[in-house]
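re: the backbone from monday

yeah here it is again, tokenized this time
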């Protein structure tokens, strides 16, 4: 039996909800503990209330539950962090340091921490953005993720901390709702299409962004944590990629299933954030180093989303 014991911090968020479920399937319910800032949550496994910035509480929980690996997902995303820059920076950085330091002390063996395509900025090549390129983020979220990447690499090189990371693109799933990102429209659009038959998008029609179906993102997250340490060549964060589309393209794809669906555009402050992000990502290094591959592209993602949302009766 594996002695892996996992703590997921930020388990109630868009990624956490599905990650916990998948980790439990793989390692067993008893091996996984979900945690978040909320008092309660409805997981089929142990849940504890935890503030990632409370170092002592985090350490106590890790020692008490004999945790070996931490997935630290707690963060303010791009749009929310722009509204509260000081707290965005504080949460995103203090949360990371509290976990990296525990790994440095040897209290935990392995850490997963997500970065984002938000690390890239207006001076980055927008199409097929390489792994190693100009990185000048312009949002608080992007700055915190880029700083975090540099710290992850530093902790690995200096103290041998086994920290692993991927740069998530916009994530689309039917089991949970996104919370405060610039790419959230790509989830909202499905709910509104099924509920109202129309959607008003907060980005312009031709704003192409890198996106990924949640099952692929979960696979990347769990896969990178299983690879032998010596195969992880990049200790900052790996580019991963699956698809790229703009609001008009996803709307057209939805129309193939719901012909009467219509979309209108009313860009807000998130347009400026999206304008500074890549349109598509080159992920050759992840594919080469740890065999990353995606299963979903725009067409099969839209079909799967609509089928599952209808089945779950979340809408309509
Ligand atoms: C956001 O839009 O802020 C996130 C991200 C791309 O990291 N979905």
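seq for it, each position gets an aa:
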């Amino acid at each position: 039996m594996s002695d892996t014991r996992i703590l997921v911090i930020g388990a109630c968020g868009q990624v956490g909800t599905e990650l916990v479920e998948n980790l439990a399937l793989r390692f067993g319910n008893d091996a996984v503990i979900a945690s978040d800032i909320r008092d309660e949550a409805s997981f089929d496994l142990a849940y504890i209330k935890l503030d990632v910035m409370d170092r002592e509480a985090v350490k106590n929980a890790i020692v008490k539950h004999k945790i070996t690996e931490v997935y630290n997902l707690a963060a303010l995303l791009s749009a929310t962090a722009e509204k509260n820059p000081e707290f965005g920076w504080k949460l995103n950085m203090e949360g990371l340091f509290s976990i990296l330091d525990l790994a440095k002390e040897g209290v935990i063996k392995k850490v997963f921490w997500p970065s984002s395509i938000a690390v890239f900025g207006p001076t980055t090549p927008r199409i097929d953005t390489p792994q190693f390129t100009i990185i000048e983020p312009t949002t608080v979220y992007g700055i915190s993720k880029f700083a975090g990447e540099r710290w992850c690499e530093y902790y690995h090189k200096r103290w041998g901390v086994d920290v692993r990371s991927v740069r998530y693109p916009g994530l689309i799933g039917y089991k949970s709702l996104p919370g405060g990102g610039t790419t959230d429209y790509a989830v909202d659009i499905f709910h509104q299409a099924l509920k109202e038959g129309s959607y008003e998008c907060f980005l312009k029609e031709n704003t192409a962004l890198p996106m990924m179906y949640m099952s692929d993102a979960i696979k990347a997250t769990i896969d990178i944590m299983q690879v032998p340490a010596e195969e992880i060549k990049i200790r900052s964060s790996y580019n991963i990629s699956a698809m790229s589309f703009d609001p008009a393209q996803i709307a057209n794809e939805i129309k193939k299933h719901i012909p009467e669906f219509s979309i209108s555009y009313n860009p807000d402050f998130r347009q400026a954030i999206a304008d500074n992000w890549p349109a598509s990502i080159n992920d050759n290094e992840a594919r080469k180093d740890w065999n990353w591959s995606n299963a979903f592209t725009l067409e099969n993602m839209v079909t799967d989303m609509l089928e599952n949302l209808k089945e779950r009766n979340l809408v309509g």
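The first strand starts at residue 6 and ends at 9. The mean pLDDT is 97.
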